[in-house]
């Protein structure tokens, strides 16, 4: 599952929630939308943290 998939699921939940007549269903769908967005953010952080270090010319890694 990609961060884009998670964001798409969040959007689907949000759109369905907008049409929900039952307040409990609406609240649950909005909570799910938030969880999908948080999962997308976690995936993005993990990808960034695990990305290879860019190298300087000559093959030396950059310093943080």
Strand content: under 5%
Q: Spell the H/E element sequence.
A: HH
User: How many β strands by DSSP?
Assistant: 0
- Alpha-carbon distance between the termini? 30 Å
Q: Structural class, from helix and strand content? A: mainly alpha
Please state the average pLDDT score.
Answer: 90
Major sheet characteristics: none
The gross shape turns out to be: rod-shaped
Number of helices: 2
The level of helicity is 55-70%
- Rg, Å, rounded: 18 Å
- State the domain count: 1
* Poorly predicted residue ranges: none
What do these coordinates show?
The chain has one domain (3-49). It has 2 helices and no strands. It has helices spanning 3-19, 23-49. It is rod-shaped and about 60 Å long. It starts with a helix and ends in a 15-residue tail after the last helix. The model has no long low-confidence stretch (mean pLDDT 90).
Brief synopsis:
The chain has 64 residues and is mostly helical. The protein has 2 helices and no strands. The chain has helices at residues 3-19, 23-49.
